[in-house]
TrEMBL record:
Domain SGS intervals: 457-540
Protein name in UniProt: SGS domain-containing protein
GO molecular function: protein-folding chaperone binding
Highest taxon of source: Eukaryota
Compositionally biased region (Polar residues): 408-419
Residue stretches making up the CS domain: 261-347
Comp. bias regions, Acidic residues: 472-481
Basic and acidic residues bias (residue ranges): 137-146, 205-216
Signal peptide: none
Entry's family note: Belongs to the SGT1 family.
Length: 540
């Protein structure tokens, strides 16, 4: 049996390679020997990528507690950032900002036990009061220089690592607060649920929810065999509680298990006049695909694997100016805004609950429960009478329709405004090729989940014009859809000379597909152009 260190090393490498389940298994074995914070953080990352949010949070908080007990400042900072990332993915944006703010305070040299009052920054209704503008204005060069110098003296680490961690935490603050600004007052994402800076998690991680079906095998010539438990990815019919809070949680868990299987990887960016949305779907028949554009929605059908895509929009468009292009790996959709200006988000609030579009923001149970209880549904079976008795596919489809009705306000815009769009030829299409971002350097780990609202594109010498940074992810380079232009401008403006060299070298050599802030790594590395799926690198 390999030692814990060997298993942990294998687990970390598996996570970095995207083999998350293997990484989880290796790290779990290693953690049986000792609760090393770095191992916990890597497993937390793997759980997050497999959407096991409760397990990801338990690992992050366990790592934080152990690091705090050992007085290891670096690991406390990393754990707080990991905690912020997890809260962000869960849609708890206020909590995400609080954790990222604590990480920055530690980097700036604050005492680990200081009472900074962050948990008390709420209004009379309990909504978090901090804004992205406030955070950006507070991030001044003088503060950065003095704070980092102090932090270095206490940490005994190198300056570039502190700069990188602070940039990462600052990025998460901007993203969380930008997303929170798009929520209505009183929304769960505006509430602080954290009770302590250094939480003590339960002794054991939460049990991963699984649906088990017991089958009995019988024959006429042999006695009945013992029941065999089999784990089913998609149950033939829902099981578990159907009433009360547990019933709601069970309904949500099983709905996502069935409906979430059809999630489509998507991306989005915008200008003042247009919205560009890409749906990464293979083998679409361009001759049969029909696109129906309305004032505030777009429907595409038939789409392989899901049948239909419904996009409920945040604001209004001009339906007659809608264009789309079908390519081998994706559908490119170009929409024209009715009123020029940046949108804070692409979709109607809570549309991610039903629309199968993986645009970076994962739907949460709190959104689901709040939306339906506001429609005066008291129990799960009030929403879906067949829940607990019908096939999973049937009631999941019914539930998706109910959610769509609730989000859209029962009915969509007037059918009279609907325009059926025919596919544009390559010469007619105005849809630009997706900007390559899948190869972003790990050092540029800055995820995004929804469009931001301002800031010009990052400078470039490309003949195609400025690169749009709307598709940058946190660690593994998966395409996401928030505009983080303002963040990169802020990082470059306030960065030291080494960080600026790293950013420019990595960006230019990779033709805009990588961005690093670590000069120690970048100065000896040759960056290659690595376009994402559906995009092709061209030499000019």
């Amino acid at each position: 049996m390999p030692s814990a260190s060997v298993l942990a090393d294998q687990g970390v490498k598996a996570v970095q390679a995207g083999r998350y389940q293997e990484g989880i298994e290796k790290l779990t074995e290693a953690l049986k020997e000792r609760p090393a914070p770095l191992w916990l953080l890597e497993r937390s990352k793997a759980y997050l990528r497999t959407k096991d949010f409760e397990l990801a949070m338990w690992d992050a908080e366990k790592a934080l507690r152990v690091a705090f007990d050992r007085a290891n400042r670096d690991q406390i900072i990393e754990a707080q950032i990991r905690r912020a990332v997890t809260y962000f993915r869960m849609g708890q944006y206020a909590d995400a900002d609080v954790c990222a703010a604590w990480a920055i305070r530690l980097i700036e040299g604050a005492r680990a036990t200081e009472d900074d009052g962050q948990l008390g920054k709420v209004d009379a209704n309990g909504d978090y009061l901090v804004t992205a503008q406030e955070v950006t204005e507070a991030q001044k060069p003088d503060d950065k220089e003095g704070g980092l110098a102090s932090a270095m003296a206490q940490q005994g680490g190198n300056r570039s690592k502190a700069v990188s961690m602070k940039n990462q935490a600052f990025s998460w603050r901007l993203q969380a607060l930008t997303q929170m600004a798009g929520l209505e007052a009183g929304a769960p994402g505006r509430k602080i649920t954290i009770s302590a800076k250094y939480s003590t998690p339960s002794k054991e991680p939460p049990v991963k929810k699984r649906v088990e079906e017991v089958t009995e095998q019988k024959t006429s010539s042999q006695p009945t065999t013992a029941p065999t438990a089999q784990v089913q990815q998609t149950p033939a019919q829902p099981s578990g509680p159907t009433t009360g809070k547990e019933g709601w949680e069970n309904l949500w868990s099983q709905f996502r298990a069935v409906h979430g299987k059809k999630d489509i990887r998507s991306s989005f960016y915008q200008s003042d006049r247009t919205l560009n949305v890409d749906f990464f779907v293979k083998n679409v028949d361009k001759d049969s695909l029909q696109v129906d554009a309305d004032l505030d929605s777009v429907t595409l059908s038939p789409v392989p694997g899901v049948g239909q895509i419904t996009l409920l929009l945040h604001d209004k468009i001009n339906p007659s100016e809608t264009k789309f292009t079908v390519k081998s790996m994706k559908i490119e959709l170009v929409l024209t805004k009715e009123t020029p200006g940046k949108w804070p988000i692409l979709r109607k609030q809570n549309a991610e609950l039903f629309d199968n579009l993986a645009l970076g923001t994962n739907p949460t149970f709190n959104q689901f429960h709040t939306l339906l209880t506001k429609q005066n549904f008291k129990e799960p079976q009030d929403v879906i009478p067949s829940f607990g008795s019908a096939s999973a596919e049937q009631w999941a489809q019914d539930l998706a329709s109910k959610l769509k009705e609730a989000v859209s306000g029962t009915t969509l815009s007037s059918p009279d405004a609907t325009k059926t769009i025919t596919a544009a030829s390559p010469a007619q299409s105005t849809a630009p090729t997706a900007v390559p971002t899948a190869g972003l350097s790990k050092a540029a780990s800055t995820s995004a989940s929804g469009p931001a609202s301002k800031g010009p594109a990052y400078p470039t010498s490309s003949k195609r014009g400025p690169t749009n940074w709307d598709k940058i992810d946190d660690e593994e380079g998966e395409e996401k859809s928030e505009d983080v232009n303002a963040f990169f401008q802020q990082v470059y403006k306030n960065a030291d000379d080494d960080t600026r060299r790293a950013m420019m070298k990595s960006y230019i050599e990779s033709n805009g597909t990588a961005l690093s802030t670590d000069w120690t790594e970048t100065k000896t590395k040759k960056y290659e152009t690595i376009p994402p799926d559906g995009a092709e690198a061209k030499k000019w």
